[in-house]
Amino acid sequence: MANDGQLMDKLVSLCKRRGFIFQSSEIYGGTGSVWDYGPLGVELQRNVKEAWWRAMVHERDDIEGLDAAILMHPRVWEASGHVAGFTDPLVDCKACKARFRADQLEESSCPRKPSKHPGEHGDCELTEPRLFNLMFKTFMGPVEDAAAVVYLRPETAQGSYVNFQNVLNSGRQRIPFGIAQIGKAFRNEITPGNFIFRTREFEQMEMQFFVEPGSDEEWFEYWKAKRMEWMHGLGLSPERLRFHEHGPNELAHYAKRAFDIQYEFPFGWSEFEGVHNRTDFDLRRHQEYSGKKLEYVDPVDRNKRYLPYVIETAIGVGRTVLAVLADAYHEEEVEGENRVVMRLHPRLAPTKVAVFPLVRKDDMPELAEKLQRELRAAGVPSFFDDSGSIGRRYRRQDEAGTPFGITVDGQSVADGTVTIRHRDTLRQDRIDATQTVAYVRDLIR
Ligand code: GAP
Question: For the whole model, what pTM was predicted?
Fold first, then answer.
């Protein structure tokens, strides 16, 4: 699938057509690298977040959830190193006024024709590289001066560090334990792109696991394995997932060791999730900058005090949605006709079941509507469709990734049974209509 530009184009177009993802402010010409999730996209995104929260918080007793604010005290970003170090080196071209990442000139294109790399046109005039901070700045309160500057957070992690003592004490936790967050983050990326892969506004699912120094390497291995297991559980193809260890030049300023889990996106292998050993860097810096003690005191041996090390797992929601969509996309021939089918894991699928009356007469619509009311009342996302041939209705739901289709036909009216069609295998079973809710619920759990 690597470098499959065609697949990317097909995905973008399917996402718009079916209501997964739209370009932000499209009627105004769009906003650079910001995307809106439509009716199906928002459900898929919620299901991704739900799967993460379930694995990281609800199924464990050693991780607590948190929802910290986006706007934080500006000193947080000095302590974290983001004010000084969260930068990309940029060069400007005085001839065409475009700006490029100094370390990516080979992969960038000059906006002028014929297409060349920056610096390759005779009159290109590139400046020396300057550091550009990726944090979005705004002002808090009515006065727009330097004292009022605050930042839109570029990661959720810092909210977990500054709340370390609050969560530890209120949750009556003991080390090792973790803090999990899902929330928006913002980065003024210089080279965003590849649809929702790299955007300027995005959501992260991050977990900070606090451990005793010395046990960090063991926990690091544990979390690498756990996160890979989670990805397999989403139904992603194992052969499109791999680890990549950061070399000395790739390591972030806070990391002792870091692995990316990479996914083979249609444009090639790229970072999907980061697992980082952040040592005690963040807690030490916050202790220093805030003047507040952030040490952990062992409740059994009160002489044992230390600043915990942190193992972090950090993944983007949008990046997960993109991996899930790319993995799910299939084109195949069914009974002499082509179909596009999104083989989304039933737990992630936006709509779980579509209900179709075979024809609009002979009590079939009424029976189908009753069935859909029951599904709605049971909280199973469903869709009613009575327009067009049954084949076309199946195709529309295949593209939306709906795993099950229920057809109400003449026999349904006579004996109270319906057929249930399985999206991937095309198998059709006949079941009692009263069993539908229980049957579908079992399959989407
Ligand atoms: N707290 C550590 C941290 O933020 P990161 O590697 O910069 O580490 C973690 O980001 C994850 O967040 C990435 O692996 C990616 O999934 C997602 N992410 C980062 N920047 C992104 C962007 N501009 N657009 C979409 N997702 C992004």
Answer: 0.94
